[in-house]
Amino acid sequence: MAGAKRSKPKQPLEFRSQALAEALERQDMAAVALALRNGNTVVPLIKPGPRDRPLDGGEVWTYRDPNSGEVALLLFSDAAHKPANLPPAVGLQSPAWLKSFLTRYESTITTVFLDIAGPHPMQASPAELLKALSV
Do residues 82 and 90 lie in contact, with contact meaning Cβ atoms separated by under 8 Å? Predict the structure, then answer.
């Protein structure tokens, strides 16, 4: 159809965490910890999971600073908050996955950004999030 605008495809409602979004809005680390312990988190993926099971698997994308070599994990409360310049695919990961991933890569990941592009960004170390996930 000529002249028709193509809208950005909407992510399913499951690709968000209302509790995490509200905790980030309040900038309340205790509420963020509770949301991460009890709900799923959106992560950018280099390679999405199987097409028939989009919530399963996928290869998580991390950011490596070209100058310092430091690695950051980006987490989102909603797939809509992921900047367009990141890989287009997203995954929904459980609290158990997040704890396992941070434990495995704690010595590699230097910081974790939550909703880095807003609307209410926060930052924490992997150790802080592991502590929050272990309570």
Answer: yes
The Cα 98–Cα 68 span in angstroms is 25
Tokens of 44: 């950018």
- For residue 135, the model assigns a pLDDT of 76
Q: Which residues of the chain, if any, have pLDDT below 50?
A: 1-2, 4-13
Alpha helices in the chain (DSSP H): 18-26, 29-38, 95-105, 126-134
Verify cis geometry, omega within 30 degrees of 0, for the bond prior to 119: yes
Integer Cα distance of 38 and 31 in angstroms: 10
**Residue 125: per-residue pLDDT:** 95
Instruction: Tell me how far CA of residue 32 lies from CA of 39, 65, 67, 98, 120, in angstroms.
Output: 10, 25, 30, 13, 12
Indicate yes or no: pTM above 0.90.
Answer: no
